[in-house]
Amino acid sequence: MTVLLVVIGIVLLYCALEKFSTKSRADQIFETWKQKSEVNPDTRRRAIVIAGHDMERIERLLEIARRNNPERTEQWYWEKILYDMERDRGV
After folding, report:
1. Which helix (H) or strand (E) covers residue 59, if one does?
2. Across 1-91, where does the E strand assignment appear?
3. How far apart are alpha carbons 67 and 54 in whole angstroms?
4. Model pLDDT, residue 67
5. Taking the complete model, does pTM exceed 0.70, yes or no?
6. Alpha-carbon gap, residue 55 to 6, rounded angstroms
7. Alpha-carbon 10 to chain mean position
8. DSSP state of 80
């Protein structure tokens, strides 16, 4: 019985650490973008929250915005994807 409780405890600890590590990865990406970019942090934060912290989605949307609208600033691209996501959600 004690062994079973230990195994359950280890599994629960592993699951908690896995969830924490996923959040930590998103924070790491956000910090990297923050350091490299001249984009307003509030714009970035709002876009990340609306995208549900789906960094791949944000990268994909930024890539499309850059391809369709060359010669714009990085701030403009972020505002564009934020506007599009808010429009699509009906916010």
Report:
1. helix 55-68
2. none
3. 20
4. 95
5. no
6. 36
7. 29
8. H
